[in-house]
Each structure stands twice: as C-alpha cells, then as structure tokens.
C-alpha cells in the first residue's frame, strides 16, 4: 500500500539528488564529476538509490498494518534519512580535506572558523579585521580590506564558541575544521527531541520525513549555515518544557538566544508562555518556572557578557547595525523581503541605498507580537507557542533588509514542529 510517508520520502530524496546548485553546496559536492574526476553524478545516484529503495521498502511494509509495522516503518525512514544526511556530510568533509577547504562551504562557516582561531589567539572576533584569514579565499580582491564583510562578524558568540573544539581538534590531526558537523548534530538533536514527544509511530515518521529527510532543511547545516544550531536548541527547549524539566529547558533556550538573532523574537513569547503556565500550576511548579526564566537570563548573560565587557560598541555594530544594513556597504536588499519592491520600482535599481527598514520592522514585529500573545493566551500550548514564533519571525523577516532561503528553512522546520505537536494535542 502506498502511504503518504512513502511518497514524501521518495519525492524529497529525488529532489535532494538534483539540487546541484543548492545554496552553499556547489556542483562539486553534489555532482562529483569535476574535482574527483568521476564521469557520473555519484551523489545524485546515491540519493536516488536511497529514495527509490526506501519507497519500495515502505510500500511493502505498509501491507502489514499494526503498531509493529508502523514502528518498523519509522526506523526505516529514520535510518535512511540519517544515511542521506551523514553521507552528504562525509562527502563534504572529504572534498574540503582533499581539495581547497573553502569550496562547498558557506562563507559564514569559514568566517566562524576564522573567528574561533582569532579567539584562541586572544583577539575579539567582533573587533578585528578578517583580512588574512580563510575568508580571503571567498571574497578575494572583490572587496576592499576596509569593507564591512571583512571587518564585521554577524553571528552571536555561541557560534564560534562551539567551533573552538573543532578548530583545536583539526589542528591536532592536521586537517581542516568542520564546524558544519556541529550544525548537523544540532539537526539530529532537534529532530530526536520532537520524536520523543510524539506518541505514535506514524506521527514520528511524518515528522522525520518533514525534517531529517527534507533537503530544504538538511542541506543548509551540511553547507555550513548555522541556523540549525539555534533551531535545534529551541526544539530541545520545547521538548524539555513538555516534560516539565524547567531548568534544563531554560538552559537550552538561553543557549539558543546565544546562537542566532533569529531566536530573539521568540524570547518574549517564551517568557509569556512560561508566565501563562505559572498561572495554572501549584506554588512548587510556579517557582520552578521562575527559576527556568532565571536560568535562561543567566545563560544568555554568560554568553554575551564577556564580549559586552570586552568591547560593547563592536558587539552592537556587528550583531545589530551590520546585519540590519545600518553600516554602509554591509548587506544589500536581498531575498524574499518586501523591500525588493523598492529595488524593482527604483529607476536605478539600487539595492544598497538606505531604507527605513528598522522602523517598519519594529512596528510590524510589535503588532505581530501583540496578536500572537493574545492568541497564545487563549490556548497556551507548545504548538501555539511555536506557531506564534513562526508568525512573529515571518513578519520580521518580510520587512527586514534581506531574507535568505536558510531563514525560510528555519521557519519551515519550526512550522513542521508546530504542526505535528498540534495534531498530537488535538488527538489527546
């Protein structure tokens, strides 16, 4: 019997194998015919074999209904999806280790590796130039040494703090650091955290296909986009909160705040949800909820505090002014933002000009936040918390200076979690 899970697994697997020019994963990693002198697109066939083979196995298994069959189908889906992700990651590592290490890697990952090395050398990653680092191999001479991408680091501290062990390990074994492995691990952490919340094998199978088996999600951490680090921690916090492990949930969410600005919009909703929960529990649980908020605040303070003391203006410039386009020649208008209409209608099509994005973004964000807080008050469930986070972040993204596909991928991941959790909540 052909099931929805089998169809989705087949489609996602075939699509993944044909994304030759996926963002950050160029022709070399997905085709494999240039750098390694192969005449066939090996990785495409790898995906095809897994997708078609998995489809056939799932169809055969579906002929035997019952919990045991559903459990077997879940583990088949999880293992095959994991094989695709790990296989792509391994291929990525081989290409970097045996050829030019800046190939097939997002420039943000390369700069994170450079930031970790600068930190180990006693330098502030937010207050130094990246000229002379591996980032030069990406930007080259196309940008002057004083340009914003070579003098600013756009990500919160946790991104390069978790890269430090990878850099040290790479130096000890004589290879290039693979910070992408941290992001792939975070992908698995987020997926497994929600899997353990879901009560049925079928819902677990659907969630696994929508995330671990979805190329629109798993290709980004493999390519070096760090969004998975933050989203994986958010989902871990949600899973821990569902089990009333409030202290650990606060720690996970605090780490997420230190990993990506994308999560900052979720902080008010997270605090609001905890406050709503505190109104429905006894005094002991209420104190645990307050402690969870304190743990989140302390964790975020530990991550950001040293760099605020070290050089607060540099931290503010890099994490806020730089990424919002308020520093000249930092980020052009790009992606799926509504500000693209300005570029289209502008006679000179100037994507670098100043725009009032901050005012518009803050206004839209506050309106969306108020609406989602009211929505959450009526039904304070975890699925509604995630749904509200997606909607607020989506509103902020549409009105920001740039919205790249990896941001939309993160919203799809959070939206999928909201969907499967809402289905579980309705059934129970």
Give a brief description.
By secondary structure, the protein is an all-alpha fold. It has helices at 4-17, 27-31, 42-61, 67-98, 107-120, 136-139, 157-161, 163-173, 180-195, 201-211, 215-223, 227-242, 246-257, 266-278, 283-322, 340-345, 357-378, 382-398, 405-427, and strands at 334-335, 402-403.
| Cα-to-Cα separation, first versus last residue | 27 Å
Chain oligomer state: single chain
Mean pLDDT: 83
Report the total helices. 19
SSE pattern: HHHHHHHHHHHHHHHEHHHEH
* Percent in strands: under 5%
Q: Helical percent range?
A: 55-70%
The side-by-side strand order for the widest beta sheet comes to: 1-2
Pick out the low-confidence regions: 20-40, 140-146
What structural category arises from helix and sheet content?
Answer: mainly alpha
User: What about the largest sheet?
Assistant: 2 strands, parallel
Overall, the morphology is globular
Rg computed from alpha carbons, rounded to a whole number of angstroms = 22 Å
Number of strands: 2
Fold blueprint:
Elements: H1 4-17, H2 27-31, H3 42-61, H4 67-98, H5 107-120, H6 136-139, H7 157-161, H8 163-173, H9 180-195, H10 201-211, H11 215-223, H12 227-242, H13 246-257, H14 266-278, H15 283-322, E1 334-335, H16 340-345, H17 357-378, H18 382-398, E2 402-403, H19 405-427
Parallel strand pairs: 1-2
Describe this structure as you would to a colleague.
- Strands 1-2 form a two-stranded parallel sheet.
- The longest helix is centred in the C-terminal third of the chain and has 40 residues, at 283-322.
- The chain is mainly α and 428 residues long.
- Mean pLDDT is 83; it is low at 20-40 and 140-146.
- Helix content is 68%, strand content 1%.
- The protein is built from 19 helices and two strands.
- Helix 13 (246-257) runs parallel beside helix 15.
- Among the domains are: 1-104 and 202-212; 107-173, no CATH class.
- It starts with a helix and ends with a helix.
